[in-house]
Design the sequence.
């Protein structure tokens, strides 16, 4: 699936700043018409925007979704430029094993 980017418009209404999505977004994705929006500030110039549908459980498996998005982005980068891939070596494994020595996981 090709990624489509929509531009948000920043406006000032009733002395309050507002961000608005273009009408084309809602025409192409009507399921988000009454969605709530959550914005996480990742850095000074990067936001993570999450639309939450009215019927969606807000906390449902949030971490696995984020991991999937992260891994999808890594895969897209690797497909675009395979030269960025580095073989996993025995030295890397030994270094990771040393870093994890004595670490226990909670189940």
Sequence:
């Amino acid at each position: 699936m090709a990624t489509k980017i929509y531009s948000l418009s920043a406006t000032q209404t009733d002395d309050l700043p507002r961000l608005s999505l273009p009408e084309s977004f809602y025409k192409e994705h009507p399921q988000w018409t009454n969605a709530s929006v959550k914005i996480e500030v990742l850095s000074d110039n990067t936001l993570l925007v999450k639309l939450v549908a009215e019927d969606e459980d807000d906390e449902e498996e949030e971490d696995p979704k984020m991991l999937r998005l992260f891994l999808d982005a890594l895969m897209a980068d690797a497909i675009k430029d395979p030269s960025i891939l580095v073989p996993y070596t025995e030295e890397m494994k030994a270094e990771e094993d040393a870093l994890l020595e004595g670490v226990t996981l909670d189940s």
The longest strand covers residues 36-43. The chain has a mean pLDDT of 82.
